[in-house]
Amino acid sequence: MQSRSNAVIISKSEVDSQKRGGSLVSISLETRRAFLDDLDKKILRILQEDCRTTREQIAKRLQMSKSAVQYRIKRLERSGIIEGYYAKINPVLAGKNYQAVTLVRAKYSPAYYEKLGERLASLPGVWAVYFTFGDNDFVLLVRGVDRDELLRTVESMTKIRGIERTTSQIVIKTVKEDPRIEI
Predict the structure, then answer these.
(1) Closest to 70 (Cα-Cα) out of 58, 80, 81
(2) Is 90 exceeded by the pLDDT of residue 21?
(3) Can you name the CATH fold of 98-170?
(4) Fewer beta carbons within 10 Å, N or C terminal of the chain?
């Protein structure tokens, strides 16, 4: 394991060694979070606010060189902290006026959550799938142009082998929906 610029880099051989009982302490995504310094966090905040902000603009705001900003962003991308860049689209103006939160109960079997989760995620209109503990196994967020489209999506869920039951709540008004993470 080597440390470079506040990021921990672990080789594949070190991970494989762990699987065979090596002495490296378990590594999780939370470990990565601990290695973000204040400049990394400031860069992430700026990019979350507007991912079109140029490297020059970020450098000027943070009083650093453009190359240092570029290096840090590339490191954040390589480490998986930055997973991509997206446009925030207004679903109502894009014609997806109806939204539902669907709770799914499934039959337990080995690795069922992976198979069913992928199958549920592939359904048209499903934009989020969460595997959960509790009375329900999955929480899905679904969008559609009208009630009929939502109904077709929910009906297609019930046809998937392993799904025992679904319960849907229709969203009347979105009070807050913000994918940004507080850093």
Answers:
(1) 58
(2) no
(3) Alpha-Beta Plaits (3.30.70)
(4) N
